[in-house]
Amino acid sequence: MKHFLLIMMVLLSMPLLAEEAKLLASDPLLEIQVHRLSTQLRCLVCQNQTLADSDAPLAEDLRVEIREMAAQGKSDDEIIDYLVARYGDFVLYRPPVKATTVLLWVGPFLLLVAGLIGLSLILRNCQKQITPPLNMEESRKLAELLSKKPLNSTLLDKES
Fold first, then answer.
1. In this predicted structure, what is the pLDDT of residue 159?
2. Contact assessment for residue 57 and residue 86, using Cβ atoms and an 8 Å cutoff
């Protein structure tokens, strides 16, 4: 029992030894620059996350590479230009509007317009298929047909 209490005291005192997380770079301005760039660049593995949000190994490698370039004194634009030259506009979380990315920016709107046109065509076609109401003669014939006993039901009545 003494050993159990001793172990519990040691385990429960462990959080007291915890310290605040240290910045990866000794210079806080450098770390701010790395974080700012990491939020502007896309993880090439996750594709829907920034480098700052991603836990993928490639994202970590890119953050290290950004930190090294920033430590060398390169500006944000120089680092971004290097990564765009290496990975293309896809690495940018907000790619620029230019000839190669215009479909990326206009595509969702084109799909929306195409969907609305398709929906309106379908609705028009459905409206054309609606049959007009029956006239008096057709209503009489329908009532007459419905009032007749079906042939199958008379056979079933005889069998019972």
1. 56
2. no
Only one residue has tokens 């701010």, namely 32
How many C-beta atoms surround the C-beta of residue 53 within 10 A? 13
For 93, half-sphere exposure in the C-beta direction (CA atoms, 13 angstrom radius) is 16
For the chain of 160 residues, list the mean pLDDT of each consecutive stretch of 10: 81 70 67 90 86 89 91 92 89 83 86 95 81 82 81 56
Q: How many Å apart are CA 22 and CA 88, to the nearest integer? A: 33
Q: What is the pTM of this model?
A: 0.54
CA dist., res. 92 & res. 80, Å (int): 8
Query: pLDDT value at position 81?
Result: 93
At the fourth CATH level, the homologous superfamily of domain 25-91 is Cytochrome C biogenesis protein (1.10.8.640)
* Strand-pair partners of 92: 41
* Domain residue spans of the chain: 25-91, 97-132
Contacts of 37 (CB under 8 A, 6+ apart): 51, 66, 70, 76, 79, 80
